[in-house]
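Run log, item B.
One chain of 310 residues. Sequence copied directly from the ordering sheet:
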Amino acid sequence: MTPEEHHQEFLHQAKRLGIKTEDRLVKDIAVDLINAPVEAIRSLEYVGAPCAPSELTPQADWATMRHARHTKPNQWLKSQIMCSSTYDGSISHLVAKSQERTQLAQIFIAICKARLKNPQKILELYEITEDIGDDVALEKICQIVTDIGYYGAAVSALQGAAESSETKSYNVLFDIGNPFTDVLEKGRFATHTWDVVSLLGAYDAILPSDLRHGVCKWRELILEYCHTGELPCRPWQPTSQSTLLVQKEGISELSQHQLAESKRLRLLDFAKQEGGECGFDLLWEDVVRFFLKTGNPRYAHEVAELVSKP
């Protein structure tokens, strides 16, 4: 979305809450929205942040992965963990499943062909073809959401932090399947926020026995880190990209070969080939976010012309 489209979406959601928007400063509207009842805000199902540059966020490069790659942490920060789950895109999966859109593979393919220089590469990497069903297509597309929008964002922040001599930064991938999801196959997907839920232990009493060892090791890892500020691996550096993998069997460190062969790293390499320094953001904004946005009937017309092209 363009800055103007983001701004109009913000005003649209404010109006849905009964907030007056005409002839008012956007910051005053934002204050009213912040003070609205939480349940009312939830009912909007409104996600995302104001686009830059805009009145709310005047910095043109704010909230981009390119910006993160050149941003050092504050000097007082001695240690940090960048953690993502291997299916963080489940949050987008939930939203898309509630929509009535069909022919998801065809739509995604059309977007890739219209907006990428080498669309076939990403389609082959994730095995997306026009003949696959909507459920399979959505599962694959939301893996791309995960790999560029969450893992790519974590790597970008790690890249920026690597420029600091003050801060040790660690990369962690959470890969214990969520046993409680009703939308995706139980136990197969490490879904968005399940890493936090499992860490806090509210559902330990009903946790499947085969997951208990991994969840306990995950909890021990974070508690030990809170005490020492260190993890049992090297801090992340661009040359080594040391990464801990959390699975039901326990904790392991991924080898450089395993990382290099993973789809997520090959996707990041592809993004760089497509857009260089801005490749992550290009793939995220122009392809992935555009696909997700046009699932909303208000924006469906934006993709209709692409799909109709031969």
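Observations after the first pass:
- Strands lie at 79-85, 168-174, 243-247, 250-254.
- The mean pLDDT is 92.
Flagged for discussion on Thursday.
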